[in-house]
Automatic annotation (TrEMBL), chain B:
The lineage of its organism: Bacteria, Pseudomonadati, Pseudomonadota, Alphaproteobacteria, Rhodobacterales. It is found in: Cell membrane. GO terms for cellular component: plasma membrane. It comes from Celeribacter indicus. Keywords: Cell membrane, Membrane, Transmembrane, Transmembrane helix, Transport. The keyword Transport applies. Coiled coil: none annotated. This is Binding-protein-dependent transport systems inner membrane component.
Amino acid sequence: MATPPAASFGSDRGANQRKRAEWSMTLPLMAGLAIFAGYPLVYLVLLAFSRSDLGQQFQGFVGLENFDWALSGTNFSGSVGHAILFALIVSLVQLALGLYLAVILSKIVRGGRWLRTIVLLPLMTPPVMVGIAWKLILNPSGGWLNGILLRTGLIDAPISFFGNHDLAFPAIMLADTWQWTPLIVILCFAILQGVPHDVEEAAALDGAYPKRIFWTVTLPMIAPALLSVYLLRVIMALKTFDLVYTLTFGGPGNATNIATFEIWKTALREFDAGLAAAQTLMFAITVSVVTLPIVLLHNHLEKRR
Amino acid sequence: MTASVQDTRTDRLIRFGFLAAMLIFFALPIVYLFSTSFKTPDDVLQGRLLPEAATLKNYPNAFAHVPVLRMIWNSVAVALLSGVITLVIAVPATYATIKLGAFRRTVPNITLASYAAPPIIALIPLFYLLQTAQLMDSIPGLALVHGLMNLPVAFWLLKSFVSDIPAEIDEAAWIDGAGYWHTLFAVILPLIFPGILATALICIILSYNEFLFASALTFSEASRTITVGMSLFQGERLVNFGQMAAASFTGMVPIYLIAFLFQKHLVGGLTQGSIK
């Protein structure tokens, strides 16, 4: 991006005025982020090395005790594994579904307005209500899916999707996919609109089949943009909390206990602020480690273009 | 697209089938929730798509059971107030960063870093901060937290709209002797109005839908938001699904209204901000 020419006024007064404007315009944002991100980080570091409960903080310096206990005495590491698995899988599924749907929609000229509304609604629904809606669908008593399966005779007794150790996580992933695939559709649609037509047309004139054109011409061209979308989705998915809270509360057992929920439980159910802070710091580090390879791959692809 | 000439019949059939399946998938939970809100308790147990004998009683009963409208009002108040806070802070900062080149590396980096950090990080410290500031369990307190929470999103959405304005426009205003703040208000704001509207709508929706902070920072009826209220519905032992669906659907109406009225702005804002 080109920097605007330094004060067109050419005088010291102009330069001063400019500096003042720059500071007064950006200072509130810096202060806001300092309150929302900077201060919490410092506070968390202090908490993590102290014995602290929610009512009374900083009861004494305990060194690495909280970190040690988080890794050895709690479900924390398992919950981090769940969070990463969840984020990588749902993001990939949603990217595949969303991209395919965007490709189809980009071939349809009519019906745009209605399709857009239907696609937009899941995205806008409050996640707590997404949980309620999917609970209604999957519930053992009165759930739509169990109703269908029972009536068609595919099952004899209703399935408790959220009570089953193997089905609970996929059920949450299903609800998450319902909510977020639309975002991917919208983003991929815009990416596809930005692909220059002449390249695809040249390939078509050479006699290449549409499918081949997509895989060999279009896809490599949009790969960096798709990776950005994937990265955005992974970051968002690592923050997931509401769906687990409303659908399973981490259960059955610890089957759907993800890091954000584990930290929430430690802080607001067991009131151990020091331990929760240690868990939070370790989770934040994990998030950067997980997202870093995606960022690097993106930069690599971007450079190759 | 010219390429579709060569598509085979099966290709088209697969595409149509996938499109239809996905549209049903997207619509089904909303349709079923809406339909359940008209079911009697016996009817709910049948698990059919449509109620056999529709009843309107779930709505008044749910409203009598939990203060649904009060909680929606709280959510709307928090969302609007937080939207104002976000925009007042983010618009000048975006302008200064993009057009004046102020901290043009620092600002994007710290906004990105704060967005990537899971919000649970901020929960405990903000809990204490609100307690100290005596803003705990209040609408302004939660609005402040949501307002700051949405700053990174607002910055990245506004960024592309501001970048789209040709540099000559600001420079002409500056040469004419207009101050930077004056240029922002008189020249730039009208030009990026669609971007500001889209950003405002997205931030308002994000605040209205937010649950984690709301559940930890509000607890009395005077400030509890609808997402928190609906999560409490879940905790009860004997859930009346009809009433729960009625309350949920009512809570979704404000958001769906925005989605319906401003779909063009929303889609435009989402794509501009994320693709560029």
